[in-house]
């Protein structure tokens, strides 16, 4: 059978990563590329990052001439369908590489609009700044415009877009080419802000999912949120769990005698770091020979440091700040228990990574990874008493510890990107026919 | 016309390395020797050496009519012995001139008084011993770290045999009275309290180099006139030595100012006295009641510069909590390492105050943020604690 051709739209991609999104995109891309012809489009690619089975194109390396041939063919209309975007659009087509001072807000009317020619200035957006800077909105818009034009020059059967930053681009490419659109949902605005915040990111997510032919959330947990809070019909939602990249795990001896309980992740409300602190306070009250380590940084770092000091935990509760991959592995190699008290976690790749290092985990029921990791102890994220009990048990009961680790090993063996890719390809075939 | 009493604080802390989590338990060296040596070099070149030379010259030139006081912390003396013995020599020469009185303080420039009477005693004794060994003098007047003072400290200093104690002149406690007199703390019989004249001291210490100040540029002549016009028995000018050349660079004219001061004060008819001379000359006729702790730091003039937020309270509480066990091990090097972590600067760098005080805290810190200061301090503390437990186990002293 002829290989499917897939155009994948990503935002962050290794080595330029922020959280789990880039890692998941790479893992899935590498596995998919074994069976499909894959082209990946991202805003910023790193030169020299060589992906053997698929072609990665970063808009920051794009030349103006490449997309000019698509200009005439493309008519841009669907922007009118998005109700509110509080970002400034640049309607000028004067070829000057002007500074952003000429931007102003403009309402798009619903008749067909010929979109402006891409200017060198617009391409410059992708060469400067980071992926999640203050100009994120502008970058998202530019990405969708340029991706649509680039897509006109490629041949493919399916569009596969990852997370809200690329959903607009996905919709535009679908409109321009008529190909079916698959949206991969790794995280939702609902997870970040709860049900009260229906800002423009929520609108983009909802709009994209309504236009898509199929939605692939990374867990049933996220799938339920999509159905319930975004009003998407269940038949369009096809969860596929993330895989775990095989990793060379190792163990090292700690320099200190105490046990080590680890929290690894961005310090935002979503990840529940304050529940980690509460849990730690309870464990330490029972057994002071445990050190709790918070590895990561984020807006909650400072309040967490202060709360820890306030609770008198300063000598048992440690902060490492942001760690690179090598240091994360060093830390995992000496961890005794992994704790993930996330308030709302679509998946939670880090729990799988901990399992690969033979570390038993205590994880929040409000997470996607709880669906694949049977070898783990679960608790509601607010149930700090139970989490403390679980941690204490894993530290003091060797039989329980061994059982959990054994089961987790089996779970890991089944959680591969190849398995995920196979499910995705099955979905591709279903929507094509 | 009052006398003038001049005193400078001279101190450097032992700054810690950014000791990260992975090194806890390694029991590696904690102090950033390279940084401490570099800073000492810088301060020596800009302040200590030229200021010592200047004052020595002024003392000799004025045949002893110009005199002053210094207190030099134990931690700085150690650093000079280690990295810059020539600078210590210059201080010794200055003291040997006969025109410089040395004051006593806690060896480690710490807040020990607030946490442990026993540790406070130990540190003051250590400092007295060191001053005796290095300078062959016995201080008569006491100054607590950063002029931290209250009635209890005055009483304590009296029990320890000091004749005088210096403090910040806090308006609320003065209640309309002038700081330009010697005072008696409640429940003391003999010791006299010298209060800093904060307005005139800060005129030279801070406002001198501010071009926006209404009196800028300040001449020695004008300042001498202000001194002469002041009421009371004596004006106490208490400052940080680094005001000369380091906080206020040579370009501000600070050296020229001090060079001209002895002559200007002589023309105005003023007399310089050292703190113990003041104690001998004047009676303490009024009471100065100071029940809560005061200091010369920040706008609040209390302990908030070092203990105002939870990180500071946690860090300082935890380090002092180790006292009993540390002393039980009876290992001088371990005790010394622990005591150096009591130096007030460590906690000063954890302050999260905003405004002008905040920017002063940030100016002095070697860390990117107060949170980093706290984290690295606590990591070193954890490492020290592990070393302590190992030492206790080795001596069979662990209770578990």
CA-to-CA gap between the ends of chain B? 67 Å
What is the total number of structural domains of chain A?
Answer: 2
**Most residues in contact: chain pair:** A-B, 23 and 25 residues
Report the end-to-end length of chain A measured between terminal Cα atoms. Answer: 14 Å
Shape designation of chain B: globular
Radius of gyration of chain A: 23 Å
CATH class membership of the largest domain in chain A: Alpha Beta
SSE order of chain B in H/E notation?
Answer: EHEHHEHHEHEHEEHHEHEHEHHHHHHH
Please bin the fraction of helical residues of chain A: 25-40%
Query: How does CATH name the architecture of the largest domain in chain A?
Result: 3-Layer(aba) Sandwich
Spans of at least 5 consecutive residues with low confidence of chain A? 75-114
Descriptive report:
Chain A is α/β, with parallel strands linked by helices. Chain A has 15 helices and 12 strands. Chain A has a 6-stranded parallel sheet with strand order 3-2-1-4-5-6, with helices on both faces. Chain A has a 6-stranded parallel sheet with strand order 9-8-7-10-11-12, sandwiched between helices. In chain A, helix 12 links the parallel strand 10 and strand 11. By secondary structure, chain B is an alpha/beta fold. In chain B, strand 6 and strand 7 form a beta hairpin. The relative contact order of chain B is 0.15. The model of chain B has no long low-confidence stretch (mean pLDDT 95). At the A-B interface, helix 10, strand 9 and helix 11 of A face helix 13 and helix 18 of B.
């Amino acid at each position: 059978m002829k290989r499917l051709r897939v155009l994948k739209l990503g935002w962050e991609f290794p080595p330029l990563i922020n959280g789990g999104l880039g890692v998941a995109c790479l893992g899935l891309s590498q596995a998919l590329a074994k069976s499909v012809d894959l082209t990946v489009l991202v805003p910023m690619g790193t030169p020299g990052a060589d992906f053997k089975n698929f072609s990665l194109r970063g808009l920051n390396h794009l030349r103006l001439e490449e997309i000019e041939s698509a200009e005439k063919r493309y008519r841009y209309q669907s922007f009118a369908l998005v109700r509110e975007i509080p970002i400034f659009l640049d309607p000028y087509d004067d070829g000057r590489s002007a500074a952003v001072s000429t931007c102003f807000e403009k309402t798009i009317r619903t008749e067909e609009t010929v979109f402006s020619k891409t200017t060198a200035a617009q391409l410059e957006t992708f060469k400067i700044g980071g992926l999640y800077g203050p100009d994120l909105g502008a970058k998202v818009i530019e990405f969708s415009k340029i991706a649509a034009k680039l897509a006109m020059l490629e041949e493919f059967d399916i569009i596969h877009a990852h997370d809200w930053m690329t959903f607009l681009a996905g919709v535009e490419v679908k409109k321009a080419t008529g190909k079916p659109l698959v949206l991969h949902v790794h995280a939702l605005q609902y997870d970040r802000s709860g049900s009260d915040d229906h800002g423009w990111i929520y609108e983009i997510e909802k709009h994209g999912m309504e236009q898509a032919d199929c939605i692939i959330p990374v867990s049933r947990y996220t799938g339920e949120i999509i159905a319930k809070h975004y009003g998407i019909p269940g038949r369009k939602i096809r969860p596929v769990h993330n895989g775990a990249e095989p990793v060379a795990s190792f163990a090292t001896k700690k320099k200190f005698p105490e046990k080590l309980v680890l929290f690894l992740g961005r310090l935002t409300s979503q990840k529940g770091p304050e529940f980690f602190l509460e849990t730690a306070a309870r464990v330490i009250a029972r057994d002071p020979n445990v050190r709790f380590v918070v590895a990561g940084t984020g807006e909650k770092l400072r309040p967490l440091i202060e709360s820890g000091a306030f609770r008198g935990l300063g000598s048992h509760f440690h902060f490492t700040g942001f760690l690179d991959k090598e240091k994360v592995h060093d830390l995992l190699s000496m961890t005794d228990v992994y704790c993930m008290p996330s308030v709302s976690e679509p998946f939670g790749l880090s729990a799988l990574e901990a399992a690969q290092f033979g570390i038993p985990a205590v994880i929040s029921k409000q997470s996607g990874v709880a669906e694949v990791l049977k070898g783990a102890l679960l608790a509601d994220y607010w149930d700090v008493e139970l989490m403390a009990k679980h941690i204490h048990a894993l530290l003091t009961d060797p039989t329980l510890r061994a059982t959990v680790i054994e089961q987790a090993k089996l779970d890991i063996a089944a959680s591969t990107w190849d398995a995920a890719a196979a499910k995705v390809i099955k979905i591709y075939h279903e929507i094509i026919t | 016309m009052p006398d003038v009493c001049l005193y400078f604080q001279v101190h450097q802390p032992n700054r810690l390395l950014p000791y990260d989590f992975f090194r806890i338990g390694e029991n590696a060296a904690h102090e950033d020797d390279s940084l401490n040596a570099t800073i000492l070099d810088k301060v020596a070149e800009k302040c200590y050496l030229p200021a010592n030379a200047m004052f020595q010259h002024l003392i000799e030139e004025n045949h002893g009519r110009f005199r002053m006081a210094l207190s030099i912390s134990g931690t700085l003396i150690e650093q000079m012995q280690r990295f810059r013995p020539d600078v210590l020599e210059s201080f010794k020469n200055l003291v040997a001139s006969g025109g410089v009185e040395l004051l006593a303080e806690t060896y480690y420039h710490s807040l020990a008084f607030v946490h442990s009477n026993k540790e406070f005693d130990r540190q003051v004794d250590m400092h007295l011993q060191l001053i005796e060994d290095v300078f062959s003098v016995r201080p008569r007047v006491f100054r607590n770290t950063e002029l931290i003072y209250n009635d209890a400290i005055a009483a304590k200093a009296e029990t320890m045999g000091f004749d005088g104690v210096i403090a910040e002149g806090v308006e609320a406690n003065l209640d309309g009275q002038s700081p330009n007199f010697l005072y008696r703390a409640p429940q003391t019989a003999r010791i006299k309290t010298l209060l800093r004249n904060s307005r005139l001291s800060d005129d030279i210490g801070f406002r001198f180099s501010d071009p926006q100040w209404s009196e800028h540029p300040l001449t020695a002549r004008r300042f001498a006139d202000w001194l002469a016009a002041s009421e009371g028995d004596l004006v106490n000018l208490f400052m940080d030595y680094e005001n000369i050349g380091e906080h206020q660079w040579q370009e501000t004219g600070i050296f020229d100012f001090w060079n001209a001061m002895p002559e200007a004060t002589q023309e105005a008819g003023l007399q310089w006295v050292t703190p113990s001379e003041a104690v001998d000359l004047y009676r303490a006729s009024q009471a100065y009641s100071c029940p809560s702790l005061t200091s010369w730091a920040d706008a609040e003039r209390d302990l908030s510069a070092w203990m105002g937020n939870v990180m500071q309270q946690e860090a300082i509480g935890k380090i002092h909590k180790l006292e009993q066990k540390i002393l039980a091990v009876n290992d001088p090097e371990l005790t010394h390492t622990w005591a150096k972590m009591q130096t007030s600067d460590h906690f000063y760098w954890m302050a999260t105050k905003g405004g002008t005080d905040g920017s002063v805290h940030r100016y002095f810190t070697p860390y990117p943020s107060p949170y980093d200061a706290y984290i690295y301090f606590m990591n070193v503390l954890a490492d020290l604690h592990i070393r302590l437990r190992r030492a206790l186990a080795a001596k069979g002293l662990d209770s578990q």
